[in-house]
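Entry for WTA complex. Fields follow.
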Amino acid sequence: MSYPYQIQSLEAYHKAYRESVEDPETFWASVAGHFQWKKKWSRVLEWNFKEPRVEWFKDAKLNITENCIDRHLAEKGETPAIIWEPNNPQERTRIVTYNRLHKRVCQFAQVLKNNGVKKGDRVCIYMGMVPELAYAVLGCARIGAIHSVIFGGFSAQSIADRLQDAKAEFIVTCDGAYRGNKDIPLKAVIDDALIGNQTVKKVIVYTRTRTPVSMIKGRDLWWEDEMEHAEHQIEKEGKIEFPAEEMDAEDPLFILYTSGSTGKPKGVVHSSAGYMVWTNYTFVNTFQYQPGDIHFCTADIGWITGHSYILYGPLSDGATTLMFEGIPTWPDAGRFWEIVDKHQVNILYTAPTAIRSLMGFGLDPLKGKELSSLKILGTVGEPINVEAWNWYHEHVGKKRCPIVDTWWQTETGGCMITNLAGITPSKPGWATLPMPGVQPILVDENGKEVTEQDENGLWKGNLCIKAPWPSILRTTYGDHERCRLNYFSAYENLYFTGDGALKDENGFYRITGRVDDVLNVSGHRLGTAEIENAINMHAGVVESAVVGYPHDIKGQGVYAFVIYGHMHGDAESTRKDLLQTVSRIIGPIAKPDKIQFVSGLPKTRSGKIMRRILRKIAEGETGNLGDTTTLLDPGVVDEIRQGRI
Ligand code: WTA
């Protein structure tokens, strides 16, 4: 589909931007007019950031799967919706047409219904990157159940916490998942997560690896049996049809857990209509998708990028989306390029950490790979360093392809600040201009707009957004106050992103990174408090403090300072025990890169850990550590500095 709201020139961008700010209701009503609604809205937008309360397309009724599937069937029934590339390149690719996707999603919605899932119920999905994961997600949306996808790298304990928070009653999983040369036993992890769980009634297991699994009578079911049964039930006149549940515009579509600066991960809740409109609008405009293009987003569906730009954005546009099961470095570091060549990929969207890691293998893996199909490249998840940008531009895009540097967050649902491929200018390392509908503002600590330029002629401050865009998070599941405190209380009447940013004279933004206690490790969000809590669970640990430090490939690494009681064995084996503990409590993705044992931590007289000092030490700062006079015991700083690893 090509929409009238696809921006095709710089002037058109400025015009759209102006209109979106001057009269957002008219602007978004006009965009939303191109979707399929069961009933139109009574009001486009009502909001206040105090409570906060945001309602888009009030009273409208819809089902997002009709927009992602049904409405494309007449013209694109036999067009590939999903091209699936398996982990093992020897295995067969699967092509899922829109007709097939429709059939499978309807079938799976029936499976959910047969097992007692109703509108509003929470379904937790813990699967590898197989097409069935897409069917599960969309099947939930079809029946109006709220999906909560959990990334395969999280531990049983993390899953248990999320199941409890979401009060989930259903789980969809796989026996195992292939990632590189590993076979990850997903069902066994789920079994551990379910020990002591009181709410989960059914677990549906898709067979991927044929890893032996335990199947508990009355609770665990095979996907294949359930799907076959559903197929017979809903076949009418040779067609499979499961009516899409009528959803209110503001009914939650999904929960996605993400790390914040305090406590356990919170369940970010996205709405049905606003999320649909935003992911579609941003997909069409950022990537300048043209009918027939193959879009390859390398993210995992366990993260927001996969939700928005593997599934909902592309599918709502009738696009062809490529889903990859494996990892960029297996069987070798040429895998992405091989996939681009094999499937004639036109748009490649990946993370700076992946680019940096592939850069490390040199140019050999690119040899013999035909990359001329590529038209547009994109990055997301963290600031991209100029070196990586140049490499991507030169060796992957052959200097022909615009690179979009897209800044956004789990909470924003889709791209917020980014250049539009080939339409608005790019600047290496800069996300550049806001999307129509996004009104950024840089503020100082007191919430005052930054008006003074720094010595480089740039404005520098904390990045906030002044007004709601359609897919702003609506709440954090089960705890609205937490949502208010996290995002809407730091500065009055502003949404606070947690990021710091610079702005130049052209109005371009450069996101410099988090200003709160959130780390961005290989593009994964982790809270320092969350990792500290996990370390502190270890029997011998007295106290710990975790900070980030610059890491060549991961962007940020995790540095843990640990006060340990009596050591059981030597420091090295204790370190390994701690890594094991963090793996168990959160997952392998949160394992510290460095653990330094210390006898004390720098604290103020009121007992607060001075992270600023630890951060500087972790970063390798040897000189000035700033004011240490307020420390309870300044001596501890020298000891820590000397012991730095
Ligand atoms: C960071 C991922 C610089 C940022 C979609 C944000 C970026 C956090 C960029 C959200 C970018 C994302 N340039 N930093 N282009 N994109 N970030 O929730 O710190 O996993 O707050 O969403 O990633 O991470 P999340």
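NOTE: The CA atoms of residues 221 and 228 lie 12 Å apart.
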